[in-house]
Amino acid sequence: MKLLTFAKVFNILCYNVAIIVALGQLACCGKSCELLAFKEYLDFQHLKQAIVIYGGDEAKAYAAEMGRMNNSFLKFFNTNQLKENTDFYQLLRGNSYTVGILMSHASRNAVQDQLLVKASELFSFNNSISCYFDLYDIYKICYKCNDDRLSIEYKGNWSRENGLSVAERFRLPFVLKRNNFRNSTVNVAAAILNYSPSLNMTMSEYLNDNKRYLQNDFMQRKTYQLMTITQDVFNYSFNLKIEDSWGVYNNGTWTGVIGLINSNDAEFSLSPLRYMTERLHVVSYTPVVHVELVRFLLRHPKRTSIRNIFFEPLAVNVWWCVLALIITTGFLLGIHVYTEYHLYWKMKMLQPNETAATFYQLGPEHKVDFVVLTILETAFMQGPSPEQFHANSTRLLLTSVSVFAILLMQFYGGYIVGSLLSETPRTITNLDALYSSSMEIGMEDISYNYDIFNLTSNRVAQKMYKNRICKNGKRNIVTLEEGLQRIAKGSFALHVSLNRAYQLLTDMLTESQFCELQEITFNNPFVTAIGAAKTTPYLKYIKSAVLKFREAGIMKYNDLVWKLPKIDCAALAKDDVEVDLEHFAPVLVFLAFSIMISVWILMLEFLYKHVSVGLKNKSCFIDIYDIYKICQRCKNEKLTIEYKGNWSQTSVLKIEDRFRLPFALRRRNFNNSPVKVATAILDYSPSLNMTIPEYLNDNKHYLYNDFLQRKTYQLLTRTQEVYNYSFQLTIEKDWGSFSNGTWSGVLALLKNHDIEFSVNPLRYMSERFHILSYTPEVHVELVRFLLRHPKQRGIRNIFLEPLANTVWWSVLALIVITGIMLAIHVHAEFQIYWELKRLQPHESAATTLKQLVPEHNLDFIVLTTLEAVFMQGPTPEQFHSNSIRLLLTSVSVFALLLVQFYAAYIVSSLLSEPPRTITTLDALYNSSLEIGMEKARYNYDLFNGTTNRLVDNIFKYRICKNGKQNIVTLEQGVQRIARGGFALHVTLNRAYQLLEDKLSESQFCELQEIIFTNAFTTGIGMAKTTPYSIYLKSAILKFRETGILNYNDLAWKLAKIDCAALAKDDVEVDLEHFAPVLVILALGIVIAIWVFILEHLYKRVANRLRVNYEIVCKTMRKYLPK
User: Which end of the chain is more exposed for a tag (fewer CB within 10 A), N or C?
Assistant: First the structure.
C-alpha cells in the first residue's frame, strides 16, 4: 500500500488556501503515472503552485517528467535542502498561495515525518492510488429510514489515456437524479382548526375533499391536496401530525406547527405559513404556494348620500349662491316695479286724458306676489311677457336673469343626463369613505387580523380599529359565520379572508345581491409558503416540486379547483346562459391530457426504480475535510473543520455538492464576531422619544426622516442572522463629500478602512469608484418635480370654451347683422303705420294702429334680438309683417342649434376627467406656478451638472429668482405643495409620506410628477479591501431572488390611493367654475341699475321741460291776437 495524504487549510478573510498532497511512488505506472495523477488532482482543485520533494538520486527523473507537464509554478526541493527545524508554514510561503506538495517514496524519511507531524496537528490519512479507476455514485437516499441499504450507481471512470469521463445524467442536480425515497415515511404537520366529527367524515376524507365545507380550513386543505402529489413524485408517504394552531412564540418556545418543525418532530408543514421575520431563524420557506386576500367586504348600499338626488348636480355653496341671487334679483325687481308704477302714476296726474290712462293700464302691478312670481318665472324660463314692463332697466334685469337661468339649467340638465346614461357610481370604495359612512364595521376573530391592525401605519385604519371596530367591545369582532350573516343583511363591513367568505356567501345571497359586494383593501395580500425545518434534507425536494408544479400548471389548476367562480354581473340583465358541453370540452381535454402524462411518468418511474448497477468491493477509503479560519481579525479564533468528501480506489475523488459552491455560500458562520459599519443619520432628534436603535428599526413612525438609511439598515440587519455576526455601528451626520483634497462623512470612513461597509445606500458616482466598491442595487430613489395640478389653467372663461374664438366672433357678427335687419324691417313697418294714419287721420284708427305696431326705438330692437337669441320671445302679436316673422324664426332655429352644441360640450365636460396640461418641463416653466427645490446637496449637483437648457433656465430664472426663497426644507416645501400653486423638486418617497397627513384623498389624486433626470440607483458602499464584499453581494442577490428585497420595498412603500375609484364619485359644479355665470348676472344687474338711474333722470327732466313748454304756450296765446 502506498501513502496518499490530503489536508486543506482555508483562511476566509484573506482568500488564501494552502493544500498539502503527499503521494507515494506508484509501482504500477512509474513516475509518469504518479505525476499525471498529481496533475489531475491539481487541475481538479484549481491549484496554481506545487512543491515537489525528492531524494538525491531522483533529481533527473523528476526534472524530466515535470518538464513535460509544462507547469511554470513547480518548485523543486531536495531532501538534503530541508532541515529538521524547517518551518512548515514558511515552506508554504506564509499561507499566501494555493500550494500542492508531492513527496516521492524515496524522500520518506525524517523530513517527511516532520511535515506529516505538522500536518497531523490537523489530520492525516493513508491510501494508495492506481492508474485506472471506475467511479460509482454511492448514497443513502433516506437517512432516517429503517432500510440501511446503500444505493450504488455506475458514474464513470478515470484513466491516464482518457482522463475523467462522467455519465451525462450525473451532471444534473441530485434532486433530479435521486428522487426515489423507497416508500419511506416522512413526518409532516398541519394546522386544522375547523374539523369536527359532526361533519360525518374522517380526517383523511376531510382533508382530501374539495367539494364540501370549503370555507373550513381553506388554505390548509387546498395546500394539503397540492402537496399530496409529491408522494407519487418522490415515492414516500406522510405521517401527518395535527395541531390546532400555526404556532406562536411564547415564553421562549414555539407552539403549534412551528413548534414541531423547530424541534425536528416534523420535516415540513402541509399548511401554508406567512413570511414573517420572527420565523426566519426557525423555519426555511419554499417558493409561494398560496396568496390569501384579506380585505373589507360589504354589500354596497344603493344610495349612501343623505342629500336628495335632485340637489346632487350642484355643490351646497352653489345652491346657497343661487338662492341668494334669486332673493337679490327679486328685491331689485321690486324696486324697479315700484318705481315704474309711480312713474306712470305721475304721467296720469299730468296727462289725465284717455291715452295716458290706456298707457297706464299697460304698466306692471306693484304687489309683492307679482314680483315673486315674475322672478320665479324668469328663473325657470317661463316668462314674463315683454309687454308687462316698459322700462329698459327692468327689461335688462330680467334678460340677465334669463341668461343666468339658461346656463344654470345646462349644468343641471347635463348632470341628470349623465347620471342616466352612466352606471350608478359606488361611493364606498376606499378606507376613508368606509370610515365616514354610517355602516357598522367589524373583523373576523382570528389572530392575523389583530396583527394587521396593531402593526399598520395607516392612520385611517388605526382610527377605524379604535373608534369603529372596538367601540362596542367585542360586538363587532365576530366569527366568520356571524359576520357573513350580518353582511348578507346589509349595512355591515367585515375584514375577512375573501376565499372563505365567498364560499359561504354563495348560499346566503342571490346573484343580484352577490353583485352588490364591494371589496376595500388597505394592506397587501398574504403570501404563504411551505415551512420546513432548518436541518431537513427534504427542503430542496419540496422547493423543486413546488417550482415544477408552477411550471407545469398544476398549481394554477389547484387554484382554479378551489376558486369560487365569479358571477357575470354585466350579464344579469340578460337571459340565463348555461355552459354547454362544447364550451366545457377544453377542460375535459386538459384533464385527459394530464392523466396521460401522469401514467407515462408512472411507467418511467417504475422502470427507473428497478434499474441497479453493481459495485466492486472497495479496498481503501479516505475521508477529506475542509479546514479554515473564518475570521482573520478575530482574536482567539479557532479553526473550523468540516467533512468534505472521500476518496477510494473505486470512486476516486468524491466531493459533497455544497463544496462545489462558492465559499460565500458554504462558509457563512462568523461566530458572532463584530463588524464595523457606519450610517449617516441626518434627521434624528432626542425629542422623538426613542433611542437610535429603536429609531433605525422602526418602520411605522416618522418614515420621512432618514427614509433611505432606515429602510436599508432594516434590510441589512437580516444578514446578521444569515452570517452570524453583529454590527458595531458608527453614526455620521453626513454622507460624505470631497473637499480640499479630503473626503468626509461615511465616505471618509470607507476610504480609511475604519469600517467594512456602510449600512446606508450610496449613489453610483464615478468619482467614488476609486475609494470604495459597490454591491448590486438595493434602492431606487425617484427625484422629480411634484405639484398639485390646478383644476383650471386657461385664461379663457369656462363658458367661452365650448366654442372656438372664430365661432364666437361669427355668432356675434350674426347677432349684429340680425339686429340691423330687424331695425330695417321695424322701420319699414312703422312707415306703413304713418301712411295709414295719413289716409285715416281720425284718432280711434290711429290709436288702434299704434297699439298694433311695434316700437321703433333702438333699445326695443336690441332687446328683441337678444330675446330671440336666448329663446325667450318675442310675442308673435308684436309683428305683422311676414318678413319679420321669417327673420325671427331663422334666428330661433340658429339659437336652438347653437344651444345644442353648447349643451353637448357642457355634458361631456362633466362626464369626462379634465385634462392635465402641466405634465412637461416646458409647460411647468411657462406656467404661473412658483417653482422650488429641496435644500439638499444632490439637487445642487443635478441642476449645476445638467446639460438641458430648459432645466438650467428653470434653476436660474424660476427657482433662484428670489434668492433662497424657493430653496426650502422638505417640510416647508411640502406645506407649500399642499396649499397649491407651488412645484418642488424633491425625493418622492419622503414627500409622499409627509403629504399623506396634509391632503385629502381627492387632493392627493391632484398630485402631478414631472421628471427631467433618471432615478438614483444606490448600492451598499464597501471598503476596497474588505473581505465581506462577496458575502454582501451574495446576500443582496439572494434577497432579490427570494423576494425579501421586494417585501422590504413594499413595507416602506406608501399605499397608493385608487384615484380611478375616486373619479367615479358624483361630479359637482363648484363655485370656482360657476363664478362666471354669477359675474354675468352681477354685470347685468349693475348695468340695469345704471340705465334705470339714467332713464329716471331723463324722464324727470323731459317732463319738466314739457310742463314749462305748455305754460309758455298758454301764456303766449293770451297775448297773441285771436
Answer: C
Beta-carbon contacts of residue 847 (< 8 Å; ≥ 6 apart): 355, 358
Task: Quickly count: other Cβ atoms within 10 Å of residue 800's Cβ.
Answer: 12
Among 870, 889, 911, identify where a domain stops. Answer: 911
> Residue 1062: how many CB atoms within 10 A of its CB?
18
- Has residue 238 been placed in a domain? no
Which pLDDT belongs to residue 494? 92
Helix (H) or strand (E) holding 807: helix 805-839
Please tell me whether residue 113 adopts helix, strand or coil conformation: helix
1035 and 1114 belong to one structural domain:
no
C-alpha separations of 1037 from 765, 778, 1017, 1114 in Å: 21, 9, 15, 117
Residue 956 lies in domain? 921-1012
Residue 240, C-alpha cell as written in the block: 401527518
The grid coordinates listed for 862 are 336690441
Q: How far apart are CA 313 and CA 416, in angstroms?
A: 7
317: left (phi over 0), alpha (psi -120 to 50) or beta: alpha
Radius of gyration of the chain, Cα coordinates, nearest whole angstrom: 47
Domain assignment of residue 965, yes or no: yes
H/E stretch holding 821 reads helix 805-839
Number of domains in the chain: 6
Same domain, 688 and 733: yes
* 3-state SS record for 993-1019: HHHCCCCCHHHHCCEEEECCCCCEEEE
Spatial CA neighbour of 409 closest among 339, 314, 486: 314
| Residue 322 shares a structural domain with residue 380 | yes
Cα angle: 774, vertex 776, 782; to 5 degrees = 100
775 domain-assigned:
yes
736 and 706, same structural domain?
yes
**Cα-to-chain-centroid distance, residue 147:** 53
In this prediction, the residues of the chain whose per-residue pLDDT falls under 50 are 1-30, 70, 72, 93-97, 106, 108, 122-130, 304-307, 354, 356-357, 359-360, 362, 574-580, 612-618, 793-796, 845-846, 849
What are the DSSP calls for 211-265, one per residue?
SS-TTTTHHHHHHHHHHTHHHHHHTEEEEEEEESSS--EETTEE-HHHHHHHTTS
Do 812 and 829 lie in a common domain?
A: yes
DSSP of 498-532: HHHHHHHHTTTS-HHHHTTEEEE--SPPEEEEEEE
Same-domain pairing of 927 and 827 = no
The answer to whether residue 223 sits within a structural domain is no
Same domain? For 838 and 873 the reply is yes
Helices (H), 1012-1070: 1029-1042, 1044-1051, 1059-1062
**Secondary structure, 3-state, 571-621:** HCCCCCCCCCHHHHHHHHHHHHHHHHHHHHHHHHHHHHHCCCCCCCCCCCE
Torsion sign, CA atoms 950, 956, 962, 963: positive
Instruction: Find the CATH number of the domain harbouring 723.
Output: 3.40.190.10
Answer yes or no: are the C-beta atoms of 135 and 166 closer than 8 Å.
yes
Instruction: For 745-889, list the strands marked E by DSSP.
Output: 757-763, 772-781, 783-788
Q: How far is the C-alpha of 294 from the C-alpha of 452, rounded, in Å? A: 10
Q: Give the type of residue at 429.
A: T
Strands 757-763 and 1016-1023: antiparallel
- The predicted pLDDT at position 241 comes to 92
Of 1121, 1085, 1097, nearest to 329 (Cα)?
Answer: 1085
Cell of 663: 465559499
Q: 125 is written with which cell numbers? A: 490519512
**Using an 8 Å Cβ cutoff, are 700 and 455 in contact?**
yes
Compute the C-alpha angle 385/365/347, nearest 5°. 105
Residue 218 near residue 500, CB atoms below 8 Å = yes
Same domain, 335 and 403: yes
Domain-terminating residue out of 861, 878, 911: 911
